[in-house]
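Case study 2.
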Amino acid sequence: MKTPNADIRAIFVQALECESENAVEMYLDQVCGPNVRLRRDVKELLRAHQDAGEFLGGTSPGSGIGQGDSNADLSGTQVGPYKLLELLGEGGMGTVYMAQQTLPIKRRVAIKLIKPGMDSRHVIGRFEAERQALAMMDHPNIAKILDAGMTESGRPYFVMVLVKGIPITQFCDEHRLDTVTRLKLFQQVCHAVQHAHQKGVIHRDLKPSNILVARYDDEPV
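Prediction:
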């Protein structure tokens, strides 16, 4: 029996999120099981995707602030005018740090660096797309992008407003918000998502840890 194309595409898209060849193989073991044809079809898509990236050309930047860096905490490292202070979070492509900007002004910011070793054309292309998507946003409930650049070793990064908040579910529980207040807070989320959609951007990874709430003038935002 043939596997629906939608299933193959879904597996293919998820496989692109894997961080290494071993991770891809482990993922295909889980989702394909004994279905040899499904595994073959997905791997053919992955190979075609990789070949398409190579066909487009371009030099892949080196990874790491220093070549050969691991995924170790880089707190204390200087990136341009930014000193990394504290690791805030980690995603599939990058790590986010709280940083101190020193020039031309002094302020605390959030800086997202592409992970060491994640230097394939596909990943860098996605990172650049995320950077550009944020630059298009102009909404009070979406963190603004302030700057972007490359480390000395060619590792892309972008700088955002530092949001000193906590995940929306944690905020609601800690403050024992009633249903009406929770819905009003979630309404802000919907407005932000609508703004992104109007800009032609779909997030694809909305979850409580990506939606932070802080108090401004004693109002949850």
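The radius of gyration is 20 Å.
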